Amino acid sequence: MPKKPHLVLLVVVVVKKTKLHFLISEKVKILSFDKVDWSSISRIYQQGLDTGIASFELKIPTWQQWDITHHKFCRFKAVIEDKIVGWVALSPTSTRQVYRGVAEVSIYISSEHRGMGVGKSLLQRLIQESEKEHIWTLQASIFNQNKASIALHTAVGFRTIGYRQKVAKRLGVWHDNIILERRSNIIT
Fold first, then answer.
1. Hey, is 165 helix, strand or coil?
2. What is the pLDDT of residues 121-133, one digit of tens each?
3. What is the pLDDT of residue 25?
4. pTM of the predicted model, to two decimals?
5. Start and end of every N-acetyltransferase domain (predicted)?
6. Domains in the chain, ordered, with CATH?
């Protein structure tokens, strides 16, 4: 008998979380960001680094360091009630002209807003705007343990194209990466 009330409670929690997900998704605004937002952006970036499965980086770069390694376009922040809760940006994958339309995605969501549709809203906007900038392929290199990020990218049309075994160390531990990409349907 104790299992039935437990199951009912679980269903109520799932329904409430789904409703919260829709409420959050409706309230999120996707806007461009720049240097004035760096304090909030870097705080969210640090939360990602603290998970140990978001990046090989160990510390947040300065704005100047970050700025020179990322495209000037397609830098978006997710805002809910005037608070930045996530961000996404692109960096070039190569300096060779032939790869000018290929970019790597960086996306980070505040710890309080993960799993609520913020990341999906950011990636959908990024896809739309990156095609206007003639980006034909978006790539993501994700730790194989980061199941949420893999699921997020897959949900917006990325597909797995590779697996890099022990590609690099973080704090002395080897990590594998899953390589995903999304090819534009409009740029041919």
1. strand
2. 999 999 999 999 9
3. 58
4. 0.85
5. 28-176
6. 29-183 (3.40.630.30)
